[in-house]
Write a structure and sequence with these properties.
- The chain has 319 residues and is of the alpha+beta class.
- It has 2 domains: 202 residues, Homing endonucleases (Endonuclease I-creI); 100 residues, no CATH class.
- The protein is built from 11 helices and 8 strands.
- The chain has a 4-stranded antiparallel sheet.
- The chain is rod-shaped and about 110 Å long.
- It starts with a helix and ends with a helix.
Length: 319
């Protein structure tokens, strides 16, 4: 099972104790994948999903919240035989009216309110209800990538206003969700691992949070080790390149200038570098008598470079 499937499985089992939170969650599911269709006697509710865990959660919420036993049917895609669509139907007019009034889609006069948002703000007043709402929306239309590969959590909305409401609700917690258009849909997404962890905490997915944090710790340790190795490799490469350049200068001086024409301190460091081509500046300084610090060794080697460069320039002029 994918990481996203594991998260949805955990969320499908979690049932909020407070009825107002159950209402917020069922309102989110209806707003994301539900339809209100007219028939001769009135309206009936249809909720479509390809995820059995979402269908099971919706069925449970209807039963626990409204004491309604909805009908459920399964349809198989004729072209994609493995794909199944689960359809939950509430057809009894009394039960339909009860649900619509509770999630604020039908007013007290029995009139269906036109609303281009996912749900009415009146059912989202408290923090716990917003948590339940996000949980329902994620179950119905969300997904999360495998954190081993990259960090990405998203909830797909069918309109810009629904996406804006979803982003506003998510951002009421310490996250910064953004919106991007993808073909005819609007996607509310989070890409930072820490914020995704916070969103999972908001949705009460405790097990998923632990799994994510474990993966994040391992990845951060691995990245830290890689950065350290890369840094050390770069330093070694830099040291080796500098040492090769220094040895080339010293050999040039020995051939065309002669060590006898060098001051004692420069001759000493030149011989030390030839004897210890792999040594660091500190190691070279410690090998001298008396010992010399890194800055002193570096200064002498720069002097040797200047002598070699000056000799090369003079040789080119003579030619």
């Amino acid at each position: 099972m994918s990481f996203s499937g594991e998260v949805k499985e955990e969320l499908s089992i979690y049932l909020p104790k407070a009825r107002h939170c159950q209402i917020a969650e069922i309102a989110a599911i209806f707003g994301m994948c539900g339809q209100l269709e007219r028939k001769k006697q009135g309206y009936y509710i249809r909720i479509h999903t390809e995820n059995i865990t979402v269908a099971r959660k919706c069925f449970t919420l209807l039963q626990k919240t409204f004491n309604i036993k909805a009908d459920m049917c399964v349809r198989r895609n004729a072209y994609l035989k493995k794909n199944r669509t689960y359809i939950i139907i509430v057809a009894d007019q009394h039960e339909v009216q009860k649900i619509l009034e509770t999630i604020k889609i039908e007013d007290e006069n029995g009139k269906i309110t036109e609303n281009d948002k996912i749900a009415d703000q009146r059912i989202l007043q408290s923090s716990c209800c917003r948590r339940a709402f996000i949980r329902g929306a994620f179950l119905a239309s969300g997904s999360i990538s495998d954190p081993e590969k990259f960090y990405h959590l998203e909830i797909v909305c069918t309109s810009q206003k629904k996406a804006e409401q979803m982003r506003e609700i998510m951002n009421s917690f310490p996250v910064e969700a953004k919106i991007v258009r993808r073909k005819k849909y609007y996607v509310v997404y989070i890409k930072e691992g820490e914020q995704i962890g916070e969103m999972l905490r908001v949705m009460e997915a405790s097990l998923a949070v632990m799994n994510l944090e474990n993966i994040r710790i391992v990845k951060e340790m691995r990245n830290s080790i890689n950065r350290q190795v890369n840094c050390e490799t770069a330093n070694i490469h830099k040291t080796v390149s500098a040492a090769i350049e220094q040895i080339n200068d010293i050999n040039y001086i020995r051939e065309y200038v002669g060590f006898d024409n060098l001051p004692e301190n420069l001759r000493e460091i030149a011989l030390a570098r030839l004897e210890r081509p792999e040594a660091t500046l500190k190691e070279l300084g410690d090998s001298l008598s008396p010992p010399v610090g890194k800055s002193g060794v570096n200064h002498r080697l720069r002097k040797l470079k200047m002598i070699a460069d000056k000799s090369r320039e003079k040789k080119e002029e003579d030619l």
